[in-house]
From TrEMBL:
Name assigned to this protein: N5-carboxyaminoimidazole ribonucleotide synthase
Stored InterPro entries: ATP-grasp (IPR011761), ATP-grasp_carboxylate-amine (IPR003135), ATP_grasp_subdomain_1 (IPR013815), PreATP-grasp_dom_sf (IPR016185), PurK (IPR005875), PurK_C (IPR040686), PurT/PurK_preATP-grasp (IPR054350), Rudment_hybrid_motif (IPR011054)
Catalytic activity: 5-amino-1-(5-phospho-beta-D-ribosyl)imidazole + hydrogencarbonate + ATP = 5-carboxyamino-1-(5-phospho-D-ribosyl)imidazole + ADP + phosphate + 2 H(+)
Domain ATP-grasp: 105-287
Chain residues that bind ATP: K101, K139, E178, N257, E258
Residue spans crossing the bilayer: none
EC number annotated for this UniProt entry: 6.3.4.18
Gene3D superfamilies cross-referenced by the UniProt entry: 3.40.50.20, ATP-grasp fold, A domain, ATP-grasp fold, B domain
Gene Ontology terms, MF aspect: 5-(carboxyamino)imidazole ribonucleotide synthase activity; ATP binding; metal ion binding; phosphoribosylaminoimidazole carboxylase activity
Length: 375
């Protein structure tokens, strides 16, 4: 039986498992937390640090294929496992590009992929001397995720807000919409992609609030976005599932914001809305199976369930029964130990051919559901 390993046992690994356990493969998961969502469900769970070279090497030595559900893993260990004949998804060299935002941005420039103007500073103190216009977005080169590692700087006088780490500094987009395209590549160079996703963000936490797929944008912009996303993935020259996040500017231009080299929030609604979900595609790529269909059954939306402000402790969902009265709604709970303000605790997917009714139900979910701590 083929043995597949996943570095990371969080919610993405948990949703991967829910699909992968239907296949005749043995799934192994490595995560630092013994209480990770995957811990009770994988065939084999190992508690350990996926950023440690020896730990990753030991985890992967008897496996046939290794994938990731988080980018912050030890890429040198994956390089060594590839040398030993293991299938690594994504390829370690592609992952190394994605892990460092300064390298990722240079990759876009080198391949003539449109992206926001930027500059790189290894020492944050140099920002005081740099001749540049404000405002700027500062993005830490390494370690950022879910809105962390990003800082909006209105002027050079906001020294107290500057992240004290090597970073890129970007010109803000003149934003019309934030969009994304999930692209899947196998190791033969075949590519498939899902339709363009429209992203709406929670400004308080800089997290995705909800998404619509297909996004509400012109056919011209949709075609261009898909073309750009496929160019990004083709040039990464790696198998895997990739989410290419982009800015659609008010003048009609499209800039690549960043790329995730794994299954992603922007692809969650594919579980119910597509013939083959992003998690099924991840399994297919790891196992060397044919890529699945990205055709949609219907228009869909995904709404994040985020821990409420002031709520820390064992989680509960308030008004769950009322929410589940909405036709075409599906709950995904991430089995995390505790809720915290702004923490992703789950999501719901809504499937409906009527776009206006879909938007109305998104608003109903946001007004009805609340993730709180049990007293």
């Amino acid at each position: 039986m083929m043995k597949i390993g996943i570095l990371g046992g969080g919610q993405l690994g948990y949703m991967f498992l829910q699909n992968a356990l239907r296949y005749p493969y043995e799934i192994h998961v490595l995560d630092p937390s013994v209480n990770a969502p995957c811990a009770k469900h994988a065939h084999h769970f190992v508690q350990g640090d996926f950023a440690d070279f020896e730990t990753v090497l030991a985890f992967g030595k008897d496996l046939d294929a290794i994938g990731i559900e988080i980018e912050h893993v030890n890429v040198d260990a994956l390089r060594e496992l590839k040398k030993r004949g293991k299938r690594i998804v994504p390829d370690p060299e592609a992952l190394a590009i994605i892990q460092d935002k300064s390298i990722q941005k240079q990759f876009y420039v080198d391949h003539q992929i449109p992206t926001a103007p930027y500059f790189v500073l290894e020492d944050w103190k140099e920002l005081i001397c740099v001749v540049t216009e404000f405002p700027l977005f500062q993005k830490a080169n390494k370690g950022g995720y879910d809105g962390k590692g990003v800082q909006y700087l209105n002027s050079r006088n906001e020294i107290e807000k500057i992240l004290r780490v090597p970073s890129i500094y970007e010109t803000p987009a003149d934003l019309e919409k934030e969009i994304a395209v999930v692209v899947v590549a196998d190791d033969q160079g075949n590519l498939v992609n899902y339709p363009v996703v429209e992203l709406v963000f929670n400004q308080e936490y800089n997290l995705l609030d909800y998404l619509l797929v297909p996004g509400n944008l012109s056919e011209t912009h949709a075609i261009e976005a898909e073309k750009i996303a496929r160019k990004v993935v083709a040039n990464l020259n790696s198998p895997g599932v990739f989410a290419v996040e982009m800015f659609l500017n008010k003048n009609g231009t499209i800039w690549v914001n960043e790329t995730a080299s794994r299954v992603h929030n922007s692809g969650h609604s594919t579980i119910e809305a597509a013939k083959s979900s992003q998690f099924d595609q991840m399994l297919r790529v790891l196992a060397g199976l044919p890529l699945g269909s990205t055709d949609l059954y219907a228009t869909s939306a995904m709404v994040n369930l985020i821990g409420a402000e002031g709520e820390t402790g064992k989680a509960q969902v308030e008004n769950l029964e009322e929410m589940l009265e909405i036709p075409g709604i599906y709950l995904h709970w991430y089995a995390k130990e505790e809720t915290r303000p702004g923490r992703k605790m789950g999501h719901v997917t809504l499937v409906d051919a009527d776009l206006e009714r879909l938007k109305s139900n998104i608003e109903k979910v946001n007004q009805t559901v609340k993730v709180t701590a049990k007293v």
